[in-house]
Every structure is written in C-alpha cells, then in structure tokens.
Amino acid sequence: MSTFKIGVSRGNLEIRQFLRQRESVVFTLLFPVLLLLIFGSVFKDTIAPGVTFSQYFVAGMIASGLLNTGFQQLAIMIPLERDDGTLKRLRGTPMPPSSYFIGKILAVLASMVVQIILLLLVGALIFGVHLPTDIGHWITFAWVTLLGITGSTLLGIAFSSVPRSGRGASAMVTPIVLVLQFTSGVFFIFNQLPSWMQNVASIFPLKWLTQGMRSVFLPESFASQEVAKSWEHGRVALMLSIWIVVGLVLALKTFRWERSR
Amino acid sequence: MQNAIEIHGLLKTYGETHAVAGVDLEVQSGEVFALLGPNGAGKTTTIEILEGYRDRDGGTVSVLGEDPAKAGLSWRNKIGIVLQSNNDAAEITVEEILNFFSDYYVNPRNVDEVINAVGLEEKRKSRGRELSGGQRRRLDVALGILGNPELLFLDEPTTGFDPEARRAFWDLIRGLRADGTTILLTTHYLDEAEALADRVGVINNGRIVEVATPATLGGRDNAKVIVRWSEGGNMKEERTDSPTELLRSLSARLAGEIPELTVSRPTLEDIYISMIEGEA
C-alpha cells in the first residue's frame, strides 16, 4: 500500500479512537461551543456600530479553534502515545513514518471542520452572527484557515517533544493556549488590551489568526478599530507563514518515537 | 545455512555503565534461540539494538543480512517484534487493530487465522482496555506475527500467562518454527526455554557466558545424578556418575523397595542459577 493510502487508514483509526474517548470529544469539540454559549449570553453589548460582542467572539473562537484542534490536541495526544507504547510499536512495523503524520493531519482536519461548523451554526442561529455572503470574504477565510491549521498542526507535533510524560502534557499545554486566548483578542477586545500585552501577543500566531478571522466575520467598518487601523492581510499571511516554517523545522528536528531515557 | 543474526563485539554504554560489553552471538536461520539472563544483564538492550530501536557504540551487527541501524521499511516487513510492555490501543478492538496493522505489511497473515492462533476468538470485539494482562500479551504476539515475519523477536512473551495459556503459546511458537520462522526469545522461565529453544545463550553483566543446547548447558549432560532415599529414619543423598549401580547396591542393602527414592538430574534452572551466581 502507498504511503498516502496507509496515511488515510491511519486517519480512519485516529478518528475512531478520538470519537471513543468521551473526554476528547467533550473537551476539544464541545467546550468551545459551550464557551460561545456562555460568553454570548453574558455579554450582549454592541462593541462598535453594527458589531455585537458575539460576532467578535465567534471570529475569535474560530481562530482559537484552529489552535485547539491542531496544537493543543497533538501536543497532548502525541506524548500520551509516546508513553503508552503506540509510537514504539508503530516504529517496529513497516509503516512509513509520514503515514503516521498524514493520519494525524486527517484527524485534525476532521475535528476542525466539525468545530467550525458547530461554532458557525450556534453563532448564526442563537446570536444572530452574520455570515459573509460574498466570495472574497470566503477566500480570505480559506487562506487564513489553511495557514492557521498548518502552522497549528506543525507546532503541535513540535511541542509534543517538550512534555516529559504523557500525563504532564495537558498541564503544560492548556495554560499556554489559555494565556494566548486571553492576550490575542479571543476573550477580550484586542484594542482594549494594554499596548505591551498587544506587543507580546503579536509575536505569536493566535493574534494574527483572530485578526484574519475578524476580517472575515466583522464588517469592513471595523477595520478602523484595529490597532493598525487596517486588517493587515499581508502581515497576517507573513506571520502565519513564519510560524509554519518554525513549526516545520522544530517538528523535523525534535520528533521522538520513544520516551527519553 | 546463512545466519539470521550475527553479532560481533557489540558495545553499548549508558554514561559509565557498560550495558553490553562485547557480545558475540550467532542465531541460525530457522532456529529458536533463547537469551537468558538476570534483569539488567543486557538482554533488552541487545534485543533493541537488533530491532533497530537503539544505536550501538561499537561492534558489528547483521540481522537478516542488514545493519538494523540503517535498514529500511522493507527490512521491517520481514521482522516481527513483541516488546516488553504496552498499554496502547485502549479504545480499539482486537480485530480492528489487526485489520489496520495488516495494511502496513506486504504479505500479512489472515487476521482471523492470527486471532485463532493466539486464542483471542472470544475477545475479538473487545477493546484494548477490556483485556486482561495475559490477553493483552496475546494481542502483542498477534501483532508480532501478523506480518508473516522471517524473524520474530519475543521479549518475555508469556509474562502474566496462566499455565494453560503458556502451553497454548508454546504450541503456537512450535508451529511458527515448523513454518521456518527464526525466533529470538528472552524469558525468565527456564522451563519455557527448555521446552522451546534449540539453543540457549546466557548473558550476564553485558557478556555472553555460554551458548549451548538446553541439555548440554553448563556441562549439564555430564553432571552427576542426585539420588535421594530414606534409611534408618534419615534422608540420605548421594551424587554419582553411575546411578544404576548405586540403586542396585541400595536395593540389595535395604532388601527390596528403597524408601522415598528419587533420582534426578540438575534442571536447566539449577545450572543457570549456578552460572549466574558463579559470575557475580
């Protein structure tokens, strides 16, 4: 069988396992929707003319959903698989290593698609979030999503070598994601954060992802509310691409099939 | 016949410790070879170097004609590995994992046959976390033989088996040997080595102490026979090269039946223990 076909077979297996672990389904897929329901119900204000907080929040949650389904999921799952012997067993078979990663990518894409659909449905049906109606905005959505999920997946694979044990992975990865969410304009309006915090957040990809998603889901008039007074599409693409390269190099250099001895 | 495994002067150090300190070993194609030794003797390190999991610090290694440190996926297609312990596949069933893993091999065995061979028919729909220790071990063995390997590594395969499962496992190994599979086995059960192995090698402190058949290891075939009996209310014991003659004279002396008579030769375990203790 070809590397790609084996990868598809791995993806099938990964998705089956994912769906059978209730914690992963609840935590990865339903938790962001729950957050949207809570935040959307509590904060009903309009933050700018024609822009509700729910609308702002949906854009942020879709951006951080890319971080959850790629980075967070992989950086927690891979150390667990390293601990329980999954990786060592696979290494002892003629499965091409790339097939393992193809399988992981397929599982990430599947949970990403489900998550985005859930967030858009809840946002549109319950909180009256307007979805874009022209092709241009959806093209922006496509490239921001593609760059975002690619970087997020690679950084998740790279970060999987950091936790010393599978059990410690969740405690290490979750706070990183939370801090990024607070400082990158998911839970708070980005332009209301202190400027030093904005500057720090601008190093990391989530700030650029949320900005890209706002350019899709918020009216053009909101661009003037951004810190740079514009959506900065060029910089969004540049920063996300830099993080893809960083993630790729680190993932290739640091990936381990066994626990460190 | 070409050797399945050839090792010359194998070295592996962890910091200051010489885990493997110059091992030479040859395993012939088609034989069952048991590597025996106490914990920490270098068994698992040696095996994991042969399996391509660990680098070596010195010596030459050839497994099925290739250097495991450089061998590719086509080489992996010809070997089967049963590692010491795993807790993976918690949420996938026995038949699912075997079906998925058979995608990785060029010429896999039939999944139903493999499930029958390891005796997991009744557990085929059970997930990994629902299996007992012995059943998990059988799943490990099933995954090890799934690819129809020419060479099978078994690292303590029967740990946690009940006696009946162990006998069934021995039959499975004999069947694989009859099909021409070369098997390298480590075990702490000396009766298992005796039942299965064509040859055994004893490893201690990172070195091979002796390689021989189970019947001749440590001069076992020439060892004195131990005769025990009861005479005048006391247990007596004598070690002799001519037990038949001793029994004849005892029988004459005690006028007929010799009370509480046993005649025994040293077991493989007796020989092994004396070798390991003599080393330490």
Automatic annotation (TrEMBL), chain A:
GO terms under cellular component: ATP-binding cassette (ABC) transporter complex
One MF annotation (Gene Ontology) recorded for this entry: ABC-type transporter activity
Transmembrane residue ranges: 25-43, 55-80, 101-129, 135-159, 171-190, 236-255
Keywords: Membrane, Transmembrane, Transmembrane helix
Domain ABC transmembrane type-2: 23-258
Segments forming a coiled coil: none
Location in or out of the cell: Membrane
Membrane topology, from the record: Multi-pass membrane protein
Full protein name: Unannotated protein
Organism (species): freshwater metagenome
TrEMBL record, chain B:
Annotated ranges, domain ABC transporter: 5-230
GO cellular component, one term: plasma membrane
Alphabetical UniProt keywords: ATP-binding, Cell membrane, Membrane, Nucleotide-binding, Translocase, Transport
One function term, GO molecular function aspect: ATP hydrolysis activity
Transmembrane segments: none
Pfam families, A to Z: ABC_tran
Record InterPro entries: AAA+_ATPase (IPR003593), ABC_transporter-like_ATP-bd (IPR003439), ABC_transporter-like_CS (IPR017871), ABC_transporter_ATP-binding (IPR050763), P-loop_NTPase (IPR027417)
Localization annotation: Cell membrane
Signal peptide interval: none
Gene3D superfamilies: P-loop containing nucleotide triphosphate hydrolases
Chief subcellular location: membrane
Cited CDD domains: ABC_DR_subfamily_A
Name the record gives this protein: Unannotated protein
